[in-house]
Amino acid sequence: xxxxxxxxxxxxxxxxxxxxxxxxxxxxxxxxxxxxxxxxxxxxxxxxxxxxxxxxxxxxxxxxxxxxxxxxxxxxxxxxxxxxxxxxxxxxxxxxxxxxxxxxxxxxxxxxxxxxxxxxxxxxxxxxxxxx
Length: 132
Hints:
By secondary structure, the protein is α+β, with helices and mostly antiparallel strands. It is built from one helix and seven strands, in the order E-E-E-E-E-E-E-H. The model is unreliable at 104-132 (pLDDT under 50).
């Protein structure tokens, strides 16, 4: 059963995971959303149901945001771990949302409907601009 409450985006950047048990674990971000991330690592220190702090940077060259968020390991695999963010402050949530979705959203908003091939499929309707 899927428990995510946000869409994940593929991303690649270094992530530092601080754990009480294993200390600092170096990882690589594979995907991230408002609710959490999946990190790739060969380190065994990311134990299921362990609280951690994750540190990473997101954004473009001009507007990088640094994040340090409390989280919990919700999935452990041989090649990495699923991490769910905990108790994110509203301002931090806003910055994370902007870093993840602003560029994608603005590009989609500028694209004409003809750029979406699904618009021509029967049974699928997209909103049309009002004639003015």
